[in-house]
Amino acid sequence: MKEYQHLIIGILFGLALLNLWYLCGIAIEEKILPIHYDYLIKAVTIIISTVIGAFLAFTFNNRLENKKSKKLNEEQIDREVAVLNRAIFNLSRAIRSLGHIKSHIDQHDTELSKALKMHVNRNFVRDISINIEYASGELRLV
Q1: What is the pLDDT of residues 60-90, one digit of tens each?
Q2: Which residue ranges run through the membrane (predicted)?
Q3: What distance in Å separates the CA atoms of residue 13 and residue 8, rounded to the nearest whole number?
Q4: Which residue in 56, 71, 111, 114 has its CB near the most CB atoms, within 10 A?
Q5: Higher-pLDDT residue of 103, 129
Q6: 127, 77, 80, 72: which is closest to 64 by C-alpha?
Q7: Taking a C-beta distance cutoff of 8 angstroms, is the pair 130, 87 a contact?
Q8: What do you get for the CA distance between the two ends of the chain, in Å?
Q9: How far apart are CA 58 and CA 66, in angstroms?
Q10: Quick one: pLDDT at residue 15?
């Protein structure tokens, strides 16, 4: 029974409000309240409901725009992270290539030995590009 206590109180409160509204409708007649007060009350009610409706519509639209801009911002950040991850990968490949070349150079003791006995090696892999350009608010590899 305690589970439904708030439900029963809500139903009783709603019925009490309905009864109050009915009794107020009977009590207010043209004799007690002039007709121009009725027009004034209707005008105020219409103005207040219009203002509340416009405010709620503006708030809802603003919330939708914020969600949309947040999603676009997240996509922009994801693209920038992908570009930077690729740049890091390309830099690590270049560093590894340089380390490989250095290990070949370190095998020889003297400059004459390096000049006469060392094989010709490519310095970098051809498809490595590490230039990053920041133009018009977005990162991209060049």
Answers
A1: 999 999 999 999 999 989 888 888 888 888 8
A2: 7-28, 40-60
A3: 9
A4: 114
A5: 103
A6: 72
A7: yes
A8: 72
A9: 12
A10: 78
Place of tokens 């992270």: 81
- 46, with CB counted inside 10 A (0-12, 13-18, 19+), is exposed
120: DSSP letter: P
* 131 phi and psi angles, rounded to 5 deg: -80, 125
Q: What is the pLDDT of residue 69?
A: 93
CA 119 → CA 13, 101, 105, 111, distances in Å? 95, 10, 10, 14
Domain edges within the chain = 1-33, 34-141
> How many Cα atoms occupy the beta-carbon half-sphere of 9 within 13 Å?
6
Encode 57-71: b = buried (16+ Cβ within 10 Å), e = exposed.
eeeeeeeeeeeeeee
Higher model confidence: residue 93 or residue 4? 93
